[in-house]
Amino acid sequence: MLFLLHSECCNSHSIRSNNLCAKILPHGDLIKLNFGGFVPLSTVDWRGRSACAVFFRGCPVRCTYCQNSAILAGKDERDCEEIVELISGSLLAISGVVFSGGEPTAQKEALLSLARSVKTMGLAVGVHTNGVYPGTLEALINERLIDHVALDIKARWARYNNLLKGDYVKDVQKSLSLCKGAHESGLLPEFEVVITLFRGYDDEVSIIAQEAGSVDIVLQQGVAEDVRPLSEAEMKKIADGLARSVRIRTREGGEIVYEGDRSRRAARKRQR
Ligand code: SF4
Hints:
Elements: E1 14-17, E2 20-23, E3 32-42, E4 51-56, E5 77-79, H1 80-88, E6 96-101, H2 108-120, E7 124-129, H3 134-142, E8 148-152, H4 157-164, H5 169-185, E9 190-197, H6 203-212, E10 216-221, H7 232-240, E11 246-250, E12 254-258, H8 262-271
Parallel strand pairs: 4-6, 6-7, 7-8, 8-9, 9-10, 10-11
Antiparallel strand pairs: 1-2, 3-4, 3-5, 11-12
The structure holds iron/sulfur cluster (SF4).
């Protein structure tokens, strides 16, 4: 995944700095972020936008293929205000901030605080998430603090808990349903489901796509030790089975929009 940040102006429990506010917890401590990293300018983390990316350290899940394993554990606590300053340094070049990780929604208070600050700066907020904290997504949506969610769905539900070594299915299902509902009602402008594809699991794609419904789907090339990654051509073939437009993301080719096999799409339309 990727990186994150925050800010908004505030209520009575706040400190002003450079016209931004850092919220204070009820016991008086500044909100801290367990920080994983910062990318001042990215054109690949949010399609169609220049954004900076703030990475949250820590994730309860342990995907064997995680590309950000260096920030899954450990501590590097920073005041949210420090992160806001980092974001401010990118202001001239960006229109949004992406929060990634690790798992950004695991640090609810820091994420909400940063999202408020970002909104106050006139920027859009994007979150990359594994969906295991639906309560954080709900709070962001209810406060109108979020413009874009990329939700990873890692397998069909029957295989989920075994793959992730934890009881996560219900929470991810709740996040999916929450984001779909918010997207349909206009509260969440952009929502996409990201499916990481590994050789030998092609048959799961159509099952997950069915769960996603009509929202945007990104097929992401899975990269893991001892498994040969699928090529872009192989991923296109898998996408053809969906008979719909998807985005395909590979290390070699970056991200492309794939409209799919036209004859299959036409056949699907005729079936409707
Ligand atoms: S959910 Fe994302 S950040 Fe967490 S272990 Fe899996 S790939 Fe890594």
